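Quick review question:
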């Protein structure tokens, strides 16, 4: 066990420590699912699984609470797997290495997985805490929340029987969420012909790194730079001045993460090398100036490279014009809830795949279904004009707020009772599984809350220790109070 097991509430941190030792990449949740089933068996808890891979556990009410309504504690099994470049780490085999620093729990060079490992830990602790008073409880653990909401989409019949659902997948202590954005992914495929590298050209690798990244929903309004956009801008400008040939472009990994790193391999004629290097220095200085207050750790570097082939000129032109022209970031702010992003889009990744295609992945979000569709159409239009093949994911619905919810009333009054202040009640621009649950179970009343997390979906992810106690105490009070 690590040092985090000495923290309070001890039972929660012990479960979280155990979870960090189990590999659980999205779409590869076999080991964490086995962990959950073994946990249920060990503690003699009734459990059920479905064909999608979700797990639900059920415990009866404690004495005197038999007449209370069933409450569902919901979290997701998978985690975003991001690491610092150069770090030797296998997310399918290696345990997360945690450490305590300045009141936060962090990981060593990787995502921590507190999204949503801490939610899982709280639910498991509630299942076995002998001192907790509650009515009948269900704990639902879904698969693949991060890359497709697959578990929520495929939730089996009879997996949920409760009236109230508490989603444990939020990131700001003191805030109660009662709504979220819907989303859809748009993928564009560019076809190219590989050509022999020009003999008289000199090759370079340009790389952007050390950006903040973060969650493409919750962090999209924080002014963070997108590494794919920066590399595309550099290449576009260089292409206007030099006989540039592109060999490779690689940036970002996950649709729901703001990309932190990207690189491209390119060439210019040997006779233009000196002018190109001067151009690079000037352009880099311009980016550094832009990044001064937005991305203090921003790095851009140029180095030599050796390659055998480049992509054809027409494919290069179409790709770079599309990447520069794509909307990225906040599109509209909400008029209904000041300070909330209504609609956004994220240029998530650019990948060379196979020997003849480049796949660009983007993600659109909005709490307005029509605005979500419009954002998707804007992105598709840019790709289509560039001649790319465009497809969209099925998407997922948003969660419309219900300010008259009984569960919300109980949650707010419980928070006031415990901490002497009112919590903020708001919606979130990130996607939660609640919209899909509500579509399947229209009778549900739902709230979402959690401890404070920062740097989610990046190796800077950290969990504020003091807020875990408040998170746990609020959940315990709600379970004791709900009627």
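Suggested answer, residue by residue:
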């Amino acid at each position: 066990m690590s040092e985090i097991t000495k923290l309070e509430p001890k039972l929660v941190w012990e479960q979280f420590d155990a979870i960090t030792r189990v590999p659980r990449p999205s779409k590869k949740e076999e080991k964490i699912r086995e962990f959950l089933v073994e946990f249920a068996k060990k503690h003699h808890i009734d459990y059920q699984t479905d064909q999608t891979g979700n797990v639900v556990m059920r415990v009866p009410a404690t004495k005197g609470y038999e007449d209370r309504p069933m409450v569902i504690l919901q979290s997701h099994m998978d985690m975003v797997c991001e690491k610092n470049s150069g770090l030797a780490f296998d997310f399918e085999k290696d345990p997360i290495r945690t450490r305590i620093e300045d009141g936060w729990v962090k990981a060593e060079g990787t995502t921590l997985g507190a999204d949503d490992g801490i939610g899982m830990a709280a639910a498991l602790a509630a299942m076995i805490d002998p001192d907790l008073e509650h009515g009948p409880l269900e704990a639902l653990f879904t698969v693949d929340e991060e890359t497709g909401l697959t578990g929520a989409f495929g939730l089996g019949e009879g997996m949920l029987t409760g009236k109230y659902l508490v989603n444990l997948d939020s990131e700001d202590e003191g805030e109660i969420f009662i709504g979220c954005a819907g989303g859809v992914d748009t993928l564009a495929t560019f076809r190219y012909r590989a050509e022999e590298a020009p003999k008289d050209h000199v090759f370079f690798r340009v790389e952007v790194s050390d950006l903040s990244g973060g969650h493409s929903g919750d962090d999209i309004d924080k002014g963070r730079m997108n590494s794919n956009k920066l590399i595309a801008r550099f290449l576009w400008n260089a292409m206007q001045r030099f006989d540039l040939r592109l060999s490779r472009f690689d940036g970002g990994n996950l649709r729901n993460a703001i990309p932190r790193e990207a690189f491209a391999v390119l060439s210019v004629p040997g006779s233009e090398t000196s002018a190109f290097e001067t151009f690079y220095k000037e352009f880099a200085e311009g980016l550094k100036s832009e990044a001064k207050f937005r991305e203090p750790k921003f790095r851009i570097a140029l180095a030599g490279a050796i390659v055998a082939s480049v992509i054809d000129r027409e494919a290069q032109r179409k790709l770079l014009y599309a990447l520069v022209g794509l909307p990225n970031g906040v599109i509209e702010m909400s008029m209904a809830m000041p300070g909330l992003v209504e609609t956004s889009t994220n240029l998530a990744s650019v990948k060379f795949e196979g020997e003849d295609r480049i796949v660009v992945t983007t993600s659109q979000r909005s709490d307005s279904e029509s605005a979500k569709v419009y954002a998707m159409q804007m992105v598709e239009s840019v790709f289509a004009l560039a001649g790319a093949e465009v497809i969209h994911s099925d998407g997922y619905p948003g969660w419309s707020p219900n300010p008259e919810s009984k569960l919300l009333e109980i949650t707010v009054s419980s928070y006031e009772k415990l901490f002497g202040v009112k919590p903020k009640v708001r919606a979130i621009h990130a996607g939660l599984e609640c919209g899909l649950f509500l579509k399947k179970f229209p009778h549900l009343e739902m709230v979402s809350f959690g401890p404070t997390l920062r740097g989610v979906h990046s190796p800077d992810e950290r969990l504020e220790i003091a807020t875990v106690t408040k998170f746990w105490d609020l959940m315990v009070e709600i379970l004791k109070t709900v009627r």
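Why it works: The mean pLDDT is 96. Residues 3-181+398-481 form a domain with the Aminopeptidase fold (CATH 3.40.630.10).
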